Amino acid sequence: MPADQNPADQLAASNLPASNLPATDAADRANQAARSVTRAFGRRLLFIPGTHLGTVTLPSAGSLRSLAAPWHYWWQAHYVDCLVDAGRRELASGVKFDGGSRPSAGRLASRLVTTIRIRNLFRFINHYYDDMAWLALATLRLESLAREAKKPGRRRNAYVRKSLTAQFDSASTDELGGGTFWSTARDFKNTPATAPVALYYARTGNVAKSQALVEWLNTRLLHAERGLYMDGLRIRDGQAFLEEAVYTYNQGPVLGALLELGGTGNLERAARLISATARELTVPGTGIIRGDGTGDGGLFTGILVRYLALAARDERLPEDTRATARNLVAATADALWSGRTDAGHGPASRPRHVFSYDPLRPAAETYPAGAAVELSTQLQAWMILEAAATIPSNAPIPTK
């Protein structure tokens, strides 16, 4: 696609649905995004051998100055998840995403989890339960990848699971009728924490706890008319006040929990949520999920797309629902890929792409020459391209 052509115009003019992209092309896109992020943003922590962490922005402030900058724990958790995605493709193809002489995606992910603990003052616990939930989900997937690759298990992953499960148990209380607190301040129960914790419980066999959290979301935070989940209930002076904002990423882990739990009611709710997403969260006339800016918002669309890809592969859902999910993923991925820029960084054999944080605006516009590029937005694009690589009709379908 020409660099100056609007992605939405390209999709509208195409005679073939985006989901017909050959699997090898989709995987190549994901590999290129993986190389771009890991090579450009991946760093040792304070030059310590065997460590790996994503620098928050490029150009980087440097190792020492970055320690004084805000610590984006949950961005790193999603970095782990993206590396697990790449590791699954490595396992299926037998080829490392970044060449035979470089570490595998699984090895980098393992180093990253260890380094998160070091950077987080030698512990995995922090003040935000949603941050911890994202890391717990990512390490679960990493542990599964290690088993499938027949790699020795890591005691660290069991430690993460044990310590963080205790945190979720503590934060999921009967106050306000249920739900999970967002932070240790315990003044806000919201979808960003409750949904990934529900998904974590479902994936670790605590079905009753997971279902109870999902029911609380359905009762207290589901917008009846829009069919989407609102932000949360904030406690002020002993009273609960509804925060009515609707964010893209909140819908993703709810969808994941509904699919993981299964059963007629949950699957019907999942189908309705996908329909609402297509109706409410896309840019009109494009079938492309809207972007949510930079900073933390730079991850929002990617998180939703990750779980839409699970739905697109779930044969328990009606075919029209699966097709809706598939097309949302593919259209958003195509738009981001088409709007990328080549930054001309490094030798020709090591291309570096910059992706826009808004699927309908080219990266040359959102990240003009010389602008600082945030890790969150590049992880989002990588995540979306990984999601798209799992759903072409002729692609092998990995497990979650």
Write the layout of secondary structure elements.
Blueprint: H1 7-13, H2 23-41, E1 42-43, E2 53-54, E3 57-58, H3 63-68, H4 73-93, H5 105-119, H6 129-148, H7 155-171, E4 188-190, H8 191-203, H9 207-220, E5 232-236, E6 239-243, H10 248-261, H11 264-280, E7 282-283, E8 288-289, H12 300-312, H13 319-338, E9 341-342, E10 353-354, H14 363-366, E11 373-374, H15 375-389
Antiparallel strand pairs: 1-2, 3-11, 4-5, 5-6, 7-8, 9-10
Helix pairs in contact: 1-13, 2-4, 2-15, 4-5, 4-6, 4-15, 5-6, 6-7, 6-8, 8-9, 8-10, 9-10, 10-11, 10-12, 11-13, 12-13, 12-15, 13-15
Question: How would you describe this structure in keywords?
Answer:
mainly alpha, 7% strand, disordered N terminus, two-stranded antiparallel sheet, 400 residues, 15 helices, three-stranded antiparallel β-sheet, Glycosyltransferase, single chain
